[in-house]
Amino acid sequence: QKEVEQNSGPLSVPEGAIASLNCTYSDRGSQSFFWYRQYSGKSPELIMFIYSNGDKEDGRFTAQLNKASQYVSLLIRDSQPSDSATYLCAVGINSSASKIIFGSGTRLSIRP
Amino acid sequence: SAVISQKPSRDICQRGTSLTIQCQVDSQVTMMFWYRQQPGQSLTLIATANQGSEATYESGFVIDKFPISRPNLTFSTLTVSNMSPEDSSIYLCSYRAPTTDTQYFGPGTRLTVL
Predict the structure, then answer these.
(1) Could you please report the per-residue DSSP string of B63-93?
(2) pLDDT beyond 60 at A89
(3) Per-residue pLDDT tens over the stretch A10-58
(4) Which residue in the set A88, A98, A104 is minimally distant from B96, CB to CB?
(5) A88 to A7, A48, B5, B19, B35: CA distances (angstroms)
(6) A108, A11 Cβ separation under 8 angstroms
(7) For residue B98, pLDDT beyond 60
(8) Chain-chain contact of B105 with A45 (C-beta, under 8 angstroms)
(9) Which of A14, A38, B3, B28 is most deeply buried (CB count within 10 A of its CB)?
């Protein structure tokens, strides 16, 4: 059973601080990794994807991937109240190039 | 990314009836997917809908319950058949962008079965 694990939270972070969201996955052959943001009552919105070990930065967001440790994280710098949402980690399963498995999501709350 | 829409956005249905959800993408895409998201839960893949071939269903989902059509490269439908209250959920259509291998979601259909 391929799995993607996330801490469900809620993770409470003060405004302006760095929010750190973590995800582990079980399929060692996975090659593609995604972070989605989902506001309550809305559909998931892709915010980052990463395929190579290391860091990938896009504005206030940084995705970090460590394939040896089977670990992917998302950092949000200068957190804003509008960042309050559920963040879903998703992993492409190597055995099926088309399939993406989602974690259960981490609920992030940015307190003013 | 292409624009993806779903109809209806929500519906309330009686048990034993069926509902067909439509998904439209404004450009041609090879791979489309249907997901279910139950209240407070993450996304569960129901099936992959490929144009010109039968849909591929995930474990726990069967064609008789969730028939899928994919008549062309921009459109797909998911039918939820013989509904029960346990089918109350948000149903999401998704497509895969071929160049980046990223996946985008429609706005979802919120289904309530009484």
Answers:
(1) TTTS-EEEEETTEEEEEE-S--GGG-EEEEE
(2) yes
(3) 999 999 999 999 999 998 888 899 999 999 989 999 999 999 999 999 9
(4) A98
(5) 10, 11, 21, 28, 14
(6) yes
(7) yes
(8) yes
(9) A38
